[in-house]
């Protein structure tokens, strides 16, 4: 069974710090990886996607992918209280059925 | 550009009833997929429709069904509701292949 594993947290970081969120996936056929942010009571919102090994940066967000280790991470630099949310990692393989992790709760405290 | 519209926002039903949820995708998106989100199981894929055809289906019983119309709007139906069907049901649209999903605000279903 295809799985995406994430630490449920909560991950607590001080404002201005770097938050590091990680996930691992089981399906070696996965080709695309996504990070969604979900605020409490709201629906998920796509914030980053990555297809190739290495780093991809977009503003304060950096997604990292290591296919050999089946590992995806999201770094949030200069964390703000408004970044407090649950972050969902998702993988997509050849079947085009997305598999989501259960999410990591991030708390950024002033 | 209007986002994904889901209706209704909340539903309360009793066991044994059936329910129909509606989803209008972003204009130009032909793929609509449905998800169930619960605290215990997280976000789970129900099915995906593309050009009025079900293209993929997750591991849910046949009580869960859906369809897509020629204007890409989609409906999801759950028959013979069970207590365990209480969840947030999310629909998402994408341009193709479930890449870069845009979610609607969801329908919170409570089965009593």
What does this structure look like?
The complex is a heterodimer of chains A (110) and B (112). In chain A, strands 2, 4, 5, 9, 10 and 11 form a six-stranded mixed sheet that branches. Chain A is an all-beta fold and 110 residues long. In chain A, 0% of the residues lie in helices and 55% in strands. The radius of gyration of chain A is 13 Å and the shape is globular. Chain A contains no helices and eleven strands. Chain A has strands at residues 4-6, 11-14, 19-25, 32-38, 45-50, 54-58, 61-66, 71-76, 85-92, 99-100, 104-109. Chain B is mostly beta strands. Chain B is 0% helix and 54% strand. Chain B has no helices and eleven strands. In chain B, strands 2, 4, 5, 6, 9, 10 and 11 form a seven-stranded mixed sheet that branches. Chain B is globular, with a radius of gyration of 13 Å. In chain B, 38% of the residues are buried. The mean pLDDT of chain B is 95. Chain A binds chain B through residues 32, 34, 36, 42-46, 49, 88, 92, 95-103, and chain B through 33, 35, 41-45, 48, 55-56, 58, 90, 97-106.
Structure, briefly:
The complex is a heterodimer of chains A (110) and B (112). By secondary structure, chain A is mainly β.
Report the principal-axis shape of chain B.
globular
How large a portion of the residues of chain B is in β-strands, by DSSP E? over 45%
Gross morphology of chain A: globular
According to DSSP, the number of beta strands of chain B is: 11
Low-confidence stretches of chain B: none
- What is the β-strand count of chain A? 11
Q: Helix coverage percent of residues of chain B? A: under 10%
Largest interface: A-B, 20 and 22 residues
Round the mean pLDDT of chain A to the nearest integer and report it. Answer: 95
Query: What would the average pLDDT of chain B be, to the nearest integer?
Result: 95
Put simply, the count of helices of chain A is 0
């Amino acid at each position: 069974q295809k799985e995406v594993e994430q630490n449920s947290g909560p991950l607590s970081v001080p404002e201005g710090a770097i938050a590091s969120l990680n996930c691992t996936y089981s399906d070696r056929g996965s080709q695309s990886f996504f990070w969604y942010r979900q605020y409490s009571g709201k629906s998920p919102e796509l914030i980053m996607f990555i297809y190739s090994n290495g780093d991809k940066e977009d503003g304060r967000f950096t997604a990292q992918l290591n296919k050999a280790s089946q590992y995806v991470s999201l770094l949030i630099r200069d964390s703000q209280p408004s970044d407090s949310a649950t972050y969902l990692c998702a993988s997509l393989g050849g079947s085009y059925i997305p598999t989501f992790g259960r999410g990591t709760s991030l708390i950024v405290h002033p | 550009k209007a986002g994904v519209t889901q209706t209704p926002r909340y539903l309360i039903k009793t066991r044994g009833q059936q329910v129909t949820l509606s989803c209008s995708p972003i204009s130009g998106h032909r793929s609509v997929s449905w998800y169930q989100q619960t605290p215990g199981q997280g976000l789970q894929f129900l099915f995906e429709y593309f050009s009025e055809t079900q293209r993929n289906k997750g591991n849910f019983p046949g009580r869960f069904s859906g369809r897509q119309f020629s204007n890409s709007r989609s409906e999801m139906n759950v028959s013979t509701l069970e207590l365990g069907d209480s969840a947030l049901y999310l629909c998402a649209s994408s341009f193709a292949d479930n890449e870069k999903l845009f979610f609607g605000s969801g329908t919170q279903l409570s089965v009593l």
